[in-house]
């Protein structure tokens, strides 16, 4: 068993697992029920998930949720889905215009700073106690919801000359990269959906130092425990590029 102190466990979440899947596996692997995490990743996404284990860590969850994030993503232009990513059904298609590097950077610049983004209908955001994706899957109309976020920087913007854009996004908590991808596509005169997403950093924590999520089921508990970090607040809560 773990000590009551617990700690932080950095996990590199594999694709096709929900964040709750990883929490459930970690509970069994570590023999404890008291585990939270630092922000949901969609099933299609991979990358850094911070598990908060035992009370001294879980009581800090709100602070960890507020940390900024860095993502690497791929956007496919010309095809829009109902989930705004590759998990959804196609809603419409539009031609993809010629896009210069200058036009791409200019479009990203319009989406930098304080941004009002639409929350994806297929998301874990709750309305009257029910998650939006449950309402959407049940065919119930969902009123558009928005939140205000900060986009600190777009980096390594690359257009492949056909229909794909890759980028690194530095953003505040509460950012839906699916939403930013669709907004970028629309700013370029077309539409699109996210086809890959990887979370690289949460505040000062880097996925390069994370434990492989696909190893949780097979690694002995005493080996996993060696990866635990002290349950203390990180040294900073925001970033600016």
Mind explaining what this structure looks like?
With 241 residues, the chain is an alpha+beta fold. It folds into 2 domains: 7-66 and 205-225, Pseudouridine synthase, CATH 3.30.2350; 69-201, Pseudouridine synthase (2-Layer Sandwich). The chain has helices spanning 19-30, 55-58, 61-65, 101-109, 132-137, 177-187, 221-225; strands at 7-13, 35-37, 46-53, 69-77, 79-81, 90-93, 113-118, 126-127, 130-131, 146-159, 164-171, 192-202, 205-206, 211-212. Strands 1, 2, 3, 4, 7, 10, 11, 12, 13 and 14 form a 10-stranded mixed sheet that branches. It has a two-stranded antiparallel sheet with strand order 5-6. The protein starts with 6 loop residues before the first strand and ends in a 16-residue tail after the last helix.
Chart the SSEs and their pairings:
Elements: E1 7-13, H1 19-30, E2 35-37, E3 46-53, H2 55-58, H3 61-65, E4 69-77, E5 79-81, E6 90-93, H4 101-109, E7 113-118, E8 126-127, E9 130-131, H5 132-137, E10 146-159, E11 164-171, H6 177-187, E12 192-202, E13 205-206, E14 211-212, H7 221-225
Parallel strand pairs: 1-14, 3-12
Antiparallel strand pairs: 1-3, 2-3, 4-11, 4-12, 5-6, 7-10, 8-9, 10-11, 12-13
């Amino acid at each position: 068993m773990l000590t009551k102190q617990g700690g932080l466990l950095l996990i590199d979440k594999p694709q096709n697992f929900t964040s709750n899947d990883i929490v459930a596996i970690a509970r069994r692997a570590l023999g404890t029920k008291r585990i939270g995490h630092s922000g949901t990743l969609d099933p299609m996404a991979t990358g850094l998930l911070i598990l908060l284990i035992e009370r001294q860590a879980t009581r800090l969850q709100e602070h960890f949720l507020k940390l900024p994030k860095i993502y690497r993503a791929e956007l496919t232009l010309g095809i829009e889905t109902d989930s705004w990513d590759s998990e959804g059904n196609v809603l419409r298609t539009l031609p993809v215009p010629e896009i210069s590097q200058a036009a791409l950077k200019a479009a990203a610049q319009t989406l930098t700073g304080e941004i009002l983004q639409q929350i994806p209908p297929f998301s874990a955001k709750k309305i009257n106690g029910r998650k939006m994706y449950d309402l959407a899957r049940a065919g119930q109309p969902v009123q558009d919801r928005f939140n205000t976020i900060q986009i600190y920087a777009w980096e390594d913007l690359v257009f492949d000359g056909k229909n794909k854009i890759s980028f690194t996004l530095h953003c505040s908590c509460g950012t839906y990269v699916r939403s930013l991808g669709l907004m970028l596509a629309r700013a370029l005169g077309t539409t699109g959906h996210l086809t890959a997403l990887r979370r690289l950093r949460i505040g000062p924590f880097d996925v390069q130092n994370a434990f492989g999520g696909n190893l949780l089921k097979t690694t002995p508990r005493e080996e996993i425990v060696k990866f635990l970090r002290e349950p203390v607040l990180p040294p900073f809560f925001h970033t600016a590029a």
